[in-house]
Amino acid sequence: MTTTGTTLTGSRVSADVVRAVNGLTRRWAATTQGGTVLTAAGVWPLLAFLADGATGPARTELAGALGMPADQAAGAARQLLGALAAFPGVDTAEGLWTKRTLELRPEWEAGLPAEAHGVLTGDVPADQRALDTWAAERTGGLIGRMPVPVTEDTELVLAGALTMRTQWLRPFDEVPLRTAYAPWAAVERLGLRRTSAVLDRIDVADTPDGWVTRLKVLGTDALDVHLLLGEEGMAPGRALAAGVDLLHRPRTVVPGSRLPYGEAGPGLRVVKERSAWRRPPTLDVVTAAYEVTAHHDLLARHELFGLTTARDAHARQGHFPGVSAFPLAIGSAGQSALARFGALGFRAAAVTAFGAIGCAAPPALRYVTTRISAAFDRPFGFLALHRHSRLVLAAGWVTDPLPYPEYRDDEYVNDAWENDE
Hints:
Blueprint: E1 2-3, H1 15-29, E2 36-38, H2 40-53, H3 56-66, H4 70-86, E3 90-99, H5 106-110, E4 118-120, H6 124-138, E5 154-167, E6 173-177, H7 182-185, E7 189-196, E8 202-207, E9 210-217, E10 223-230, H8 236-248, E11 252-255, E12 262-265, E13 268-275, E14 282-288, E15 290-297, E16 328-341, E17 345-358, E18 367-375, E19 380-386, E20 392-398, H9 411-418
Parallel strand pairs: 3-4, 14-18
Antiparallel strand pairs: 1-3, 2-20, 3-5, 5-17, 6-7, 7-14, 8-9, 8-11, 9-10, 10-19, 12-13, 13-18, 15-16, 16-17, 19-20
């Protein structure tokens, strides 16, 4: 079953649903310790559909993870998927596969985004290939495999795919990244630089864990990326959680136009410069191009996703009587995700899946201007989001930027941004 950006135009997502999804993003991102990318917006609707069919402690735990009562979850998931499908630059797809012998509750199946679903034939290798093909096709080849395995015990697979693509309103120039951060300096990295007269694209936030510098990189179709640089020593999860908090509960935030001279925040320096001609203040930004991939075993953090009870395959009655009369438990849950940030734009993709099993020499310088220099030249975080709703579509932490190419053939640019329509 598939929904795309052309099917549900005009759909909107409520502030309550955005807060619920971003709440899961925040809690998940807060556990980040190293380089990764994650998409809670891909997990949340699947958890909601599971909650709709769950009972007992499993239903309560799933509702807690969702941040919403279980009886409202399926409707909220449909609203979210409709809104995502309507966002330009975003594509979504939902898939459901069951064994021929598994009878679904008609009311639960009817609540999913499409009426038809696929069949698990019992030929495990063939079924795995079919699901892997689905993942690759729904993400334009960015994710090549389903993040959960198909086994002889698999009764049901519920999956979702989410991709986003945006081009910068103003592209960056590619340059070698010069940094004092030793691990990055050991290999020449691909840096990105641009200058802007819009100082408020950058700001500094006072958070409970320290100062965080935030750069807003605006893209087409109202899809943006926020880069987040915390104080040295700030844990990745703290910086990412602060970035999500700023979307809903702005703390003390100082915009670029009001920053004091000197070291104004992490990676930030504001100076007064003399110039031979009259010119506006400028914001000079240097960051790193990156590609981050990750695979997440969602059951490894079962408490975070409300799956503690749902894992128990020894419950005789199962946990999802609203899905099927056959007793079911969650046997596997995973997400594979990718994010690319380059000179021309940003791309992200994720496939999330749950597998259910059965239980058991200058002229005179006459003028003065201000220049802000921002350098994201050590590990930093990012949030990719829809500008108007503030729904976070992907979050991550960069620890290993792309190397600077020994020779340029524009392969990355052409493949990623021009010939991939």
